[in-house]
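pinned: reference chain
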Amino acid sequence: MQNKYKVHPLRANLLAVATALLLWTPAAPPLAALVMWVSIGWLFITALLLDFSHRRSRGGLPWQLLPGVLLIGLIASAPQRHMLLVWAWVALFMLPQPHWVATFNLSGMLLGMVLILPHLGLPAWTLMLLSLIVLCLIATARANQLTLIRGDLRRRLRLVPGVNFWTREQLLLDLKRERHRCAREAVHGELVVIRVRRRQLWPLARRLCRLLYGFENAYRVDGRTLAAILFSPSPQEGEKRRRRLAAALPDNALGRGMPLADIEFESLDLHALAETS
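pinned: its structure tokens
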């Protein structure tokens, strides 16, 4: 479920690129082959260990730095053989990245163009450079758009540091976004509303968050009501999961589920929904 909902397309793309490099390796010079094997290893390991979620950000060096380094190494090891790889910079610039990483990748792209200059005529090299600049500008504009979306996500009002527990206002925003996502990905989404005693709200909120997947969120509707958006491969699996969730909560916690596809946002009243749970 988690792979299907968030990870699977990205993992498939990484494995496809790794396979393409693997088929390209046998005829490569020794130095180029070494860089290619490092690239293949990184792609395979990243694909296998991938646990992507747009809800979280990780510390450390930006991962966009390593593909740039490997791309420079591939072009520098065999410029004549790998000159077509300069077009891969366009895909790299489509990724949101810090300014210093973008500057590094821009420098790497220009270095790659300088390395392939002796193997191309000046007119062809100039046309390639101009085309590459235009495509990279378009890719950067797309990356800036994704950065704005990410910034909006980071401005969420997280109620408990380090836990996916959000406000009622964020629930209203997420309901619309996740319903569209479920329709696009053919995933069953369900809003679960849980009525608890006031003194139990925060302990049960932490327990509820521990019971959810990493890409799911819980919400505080009011002082006595919690909510969560659950995702399952099918309505039948969703019902089973809702029952397991109810069994893990105290008996005095009353819950009600509603498929996201059945929610009418124009007349949605969370407080009324909470009262009937």
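why pinned: Residues 1-5, 52-59 have pLDDT under 50 and may be disordered. The chain has ten helices and five strands.
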